[in-house]
């Protein structure tokens, strides 16, 4: 799910401004989860719009770093976070290779 900012739009309690309670946050996140949301971020809608306007084919691949129902702060080690960072690169790289191989077979 894409939101308009990192704090309020994602129901975070650790920003400079917060107009809701922990109970409000939990209710919001539970409803989002029930609707099928498993990741919240804020860049994809702008990225998709710019690619569309530019005529570029693109995709958004997200990594979920923590369970927001359990907290807002990362507790994973540097090594674990690094491995998470590599996953979308490996996934997208594999997809691109597959697409290039499929095109090469049709030439």
From TrEMBL:
Highest classification ranks of the organism: Eukaryota, Metazoa, Chordata, Craniata, Vertebrata
Gene3D superfamilies: Nucleoside phosphorylase domain
InterPro entries: Nucleoside_phosphorylase_d, Nucleoside_phosphorylase_sf
All copies of domain Nucleoside phosphorylase, residue ranges: 5-94
Pfam families: PNP_UDP_1 (PF01048)
TM region(s), chain numbering: none
Encoding gene per record: UPP1
Protein name (database record): Uridine phosphorylase 1
């Amino acid at each position: 799910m894409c939101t308009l900012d990192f704090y309020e739009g994602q129901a975070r309690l650790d920003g400079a401004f917060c107009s809701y309670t922990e109970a409000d946050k939990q209710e919001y996140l539970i409803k989002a989860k029930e609707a099928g949301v498993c990741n919240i971020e804020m860049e994809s809608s702008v990225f998709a719009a710019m690619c569309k306007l530019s005529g570029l084919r693109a995709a958004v691949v997200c990594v979920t770093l923590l369970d927001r129902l359990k907290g807002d702060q990362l507790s994973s080690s540097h090594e674990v976070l690094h491995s998470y960072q590599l996953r979308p690169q490996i996934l997208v790289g594999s997809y691109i290779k597959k697409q290039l191989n499929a095109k090469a077979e049709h030439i």
